[in-house]
Structure formats: structure tokens, C-alpha cells
Amino acid sequence: MYYMGVDLGGTSIKVGLITEEGNIINKVSGPTEVEKGPEGIINKIVDLIDEVCKLTGIKLEAIKAVGVGIPGVSRDDGLVYFATNLFWTNVPIGQSLREKLGLPVYIENDATVAAVAEFIKGGTKGTNNSIFLTLGTGVGGGLIINKKVYSGSHGIGTEMGHMVIGKNFYDCNCGNNGCWETFVSATAMNKHCIKLLEEGNKSTIIDKVAGERRLINAKLIFDCATEEDEVALLVVERMIKYLAIGIANLINIFDPEVIAIGGGISGAGNLLLDKLKKEIVKTIYVKNMNITEIVLAQLGNDAGIIGSGMYGKMQLEEGQN
Length: 321
Ligand SMILES: [Zn+2]
Fold this sequence. Notes:
The protein is α/β, with parallel strands linked by helices.
């Protein structure tokens, strides 16, 4: 028997047929076409599922469950409360897909399903309690407790990127000031870098983008930091300081065995991890128990498909409807 994993993003939809062990047999993708609205996107998902079935010669009846990772917040029954990048509010995607496919369908936040992928096959495999963080344009988080997904009483929990961590010089997209993602996302690094340049700090960064500030990105900033560029060093230092504070908060609350870091910023690799570990110990409460492992996520782009499919499996086995 098989599972279908659907990674619904703001720009593309990826669909893969998955084995019981979480291996991808085959996958397809297409553009999200946000302008076609929920109905158009749901039909596109059904078409892509058909396409994978045809490619692999597997019939729909051989699929035990479908899992869908969404860029938003959803209820257990698959109602998406909101998904900002899709311009969705209260979309019953779970119910629609169940009716169209005649299969069990489970909907979860994209960072949470990526946490499942890391737990099944990646950096947090073999643990009971783990956290996955994705540091990209924004910050997402997923939490596994006792080998099960925890997303709160109403499905709106573990929005770690929006824990308020200090006062910041710009507001979060959610309307609050001081959200963690405004300190530690790639967007946050770009904004801080541009602020320092506007204040007249000297840097090689501006030459490297030929004066085009919109071309500044986290990778460039990390690269310049290794070359001892002062602005880049300040940006990386501040980002890691706040990343460590947020992670220490998570350790103080959840005491996980492992925290895996993914998303574009994790491309900085050991440069990021080494500095981060030195900072975390300053803020954790039980300092002589600095034993939560911090690792890089392992699954990259396939985490969405694998995690969605495996989330479907976990929910089915737990007897969720
Ligand atoms: Zn926020």
C-alpha cells in the first residue's frame, strides 16, 4: 500500500507517491495558479494525483491516505483557517479532496509536515521529542512529542516564528512587532543589512550587488561575514543572537532531544551551528544540562512531499478521520 504526499506552496504544487517507509516512488509538480482560487487549486491537486498514479501504474484504490502540507493554519478536519500566500480564508480543502478522491485526506501546516519528514527519515530520526525549524523568507516550526505531531488544541499552535521576542525596527507581516521571524528569517537579515548600509556603514556588500539593494540575500551576507565584512558580521551576529534566544526558549519549554534547522539559511551550515551553540548555552535555564542536539535538517526540497505522505500515514494509524 502507498501514501500520497502533496506539498502545496505559494508558487508550486508538488505531489509524490510514497511507500510505507517514506520513499518517493515518483513525483510531479505544477504551478499553483493562486488566481484560480481554492476550487482551481484543489482541482489541480486532483489532476496531479491522477498524473502520478498514471506514471507509476498505481491505482487510487492502492493509496491508503493523502497528506497535504499547506502554507497556513488548519483545523484537524482539514479546514484551512487562513493561508496568506494563497489568499485563502476558511477553505474546507480536506472535505473537498475527500469527496473528489474518496480517500482519507489529512491537512497540516508545511513546517509541521517537514518536521514529520525529518522525524521519519532525517535529522531527528529515532527521537521521541523533537523540533524542526525552517528559516527562510519567514520562520516555521514543527513539534513532535512522544513520536506524535503536536499542533495544539485547535491546530493553531507551534507558530514559533510569531513568538514575540523583543522590540524590532520593523513590524511582522502578521501585524505584531517583535515576532521571532523578524529577527532571524532571511527577510530579517536583508532588512537589517539594508538598514546598516543606509546608516552609512562601509561594506563590500553593496559593490557585490552593483548597488542593487534588492539583490542582497542571506547567502551573500554569510559569505561576506566569512570575509570579515563588518556589516555582514553585525547582521550575522544579531541574527544568531536572536536565533539562540528563541531556541533557548523552546528548549526551556519543551526539552527536546534534537532540534533540526532547515530552510535557506541552514545552507550556512557549520558556520551557523558553531556560533549558535555557543550562544544557546548563555540563555538556557539548566546550564549544566546543555544536551539538546542542534543539527541541520537533511531532507531539503523533498521534505514537503515525504512529510505530507507520512503525516497522512501517522494520522490514519492514530484513527483520525
Ligand atoms: Zn508575526
